[in-house]
Amino acid sequence: MSPTLFLPVRIGWLALSAALYAVLGYGVSREQFPTLLLLYGLLFWGYWLRTRNLLWASLTETNAPTTPPPPDRLLFGAAIGFRVLLLGAMPHLSDDYARFIWDGRLLAHGYNPYLYLPATLIGTPVAASAGLITDLFQALNSPNYFTVYPPVGQALFAVAAWLSPDNVLGNVIGLRVPILLAEIGTMWLLVKLLRRAGQNPNLALLYGLNPLVILELTGNVHAEAILIFFVLSAVWLFGRGWFAASAGALALAIGTKLLPLLLLPLVIRHLGWRRGLAYAGLTGAFTAVLFLPFMSIELVQNVGASLRLYVQNFEFNASVYYLVRAAGYRFLGFNIVAVAGVGLSAVTLAGVVWAARQWGRVAPVYALLLTVTGYFLLATTVHPWYLTSLVAVGVFVPFRYPLVWSGVVWLSYATYQTIPYHENLWLTGAEYAVLLAFIAPAILNNATNKVLL
Predict the structure, then answer these.
(1) Predicted pLDDT of residue 56
(2) What is the pLDDT of residue 154?
(3) In whole angstroms, what is the distance from residue 453 CA to residue 449 CA?
(4) N or C: which end of the chain has fewer CB within 10 A?
(5) Cβ(368)–Cβ(402) below 8 Å
(6) How far is CA 385 from the centre of its chain?
(7) Residue 312 in contact with residue 341, Cβ under 8 Å?
């Protein structure tokens, strides 16, 4: 196709995609699953058409190009524009934002959010003084659980609440702005890291244009956007020789979500015991400083209790766990989530150690991919937005399954069609069958050395 014809096609795709994002962001709830699936399917199809050439090049090139092409300004601009388009939308696909606002209003009014259980707080003078109204309480999906969001997230929640103390939409916009800025920073870092590796910087568009990333992070204000930015910052800073700054960035990632703790065994393996333990110790010290303003015995007890309940009670869109649960019903006659959740967590930790031991046999980013993939495959709960971190890792590898999973995970929204919620295990099985079809060739072909970083 000639450039004069290609540009109108790209503009047409961008306009259609923008319209679909606007409809999904402002006009479709998660209860409307058929419409949700259709619109997302159209978005993902367009995304796949726009990025398949990048994927094919990463799969077929035997050597990195000597002069990588410049970033595609139109598509990077579109990636930012799609996110800006969602700036004023209320989250329709997740109700987690209500807890973000709840915690933020507590902290903005001087109360430690780790110490208060919403179910026992509503209607009290503390709730009244912090603006914790009944409508906000009724929107919470976990009123009987203490908050588990680490201090960086809490600080962002509090800033949003301080900027808009009485308006929920204002709170949401306040939550969304730092996420939008982090996403722009993430794309910049991806370009920098790809260039450092002598690779095509436009591979960053695999993340930047991904519909799951756009809708779940900017759209649904999930803090994985902040986490991904800080982890990539840690990698970039370390590459520039800034050891302490890199550890600080990783601490900020852990202070946003606890998932990056899984990276520490890989870091120790990469740096060797002496430097690795020094880096991990410095990261731990910075993380402790982040928690220090909130620290108390009650914090440890309350967060620990909520994390145990999460591991032992929550189940959504799982794979290996659902097979284990089925075996429990078959042979024991009851749901073994309390035992299986703990057991699979132990297996996950063992898997992280095993992945770290593969360092030197496979490229570092592949060990990271093994760690993140194994974690999600063994988890009892896999919400769609969890997979955005896997998409970010997938930018640096020639495997397509992280992107495929970001498409088929949308089937899990079928759960919310009815109240009470009911998970369609046939659709869950279809999701993981498609995923397996893309994971299996990567394993069988043993393509562990074909990585981009």
Answers:
(1) 60
(2) 97
(3) 10
(4) N
(5) no
(6) 5
(7) yes
Mention every residue, 6+ apart, whose C-beta is less than 8 A from residue 49. 13
Percent of the chain with pLDDT over 70: 90
Largest alpha-carbon pair distance within the chain? 68
Q: Which residues of the chain have pLDDT under 50?
A: 1-5, 62-64, 447-453
Structure tokens at 25: 């962001």
pTM over 0.85: yes
Q: What is the pLDDT of residue 350?
A: 79
Joined together, the tokens standing for residue 210 give 């991904």
Q: Which residues pair with 316 in a beta bridge?
A: 381
Q: CA–CA separation, 292 vs 32, rounded Å?
A: 43
Query: Is there a contact between 76 and 205 (Cβ–Cβ < 8 Å)?
Result: yes
Q: Find, among 224, 221, 219, 225, the residue nearest to 84 by Cα.
A: 219
Helix residue ranges, H only, 164-242: 168-196, 205-208, 211-213, 224-239
The 10 Å Cβ neighbour count of residue 427 is 18
Distance CA 162, CA 131 (A): 11
For 383, residues 6+ apart whose C-beta sits below 8 A from its C-beta are 94, 316, 317, 412
DSSP 215: I
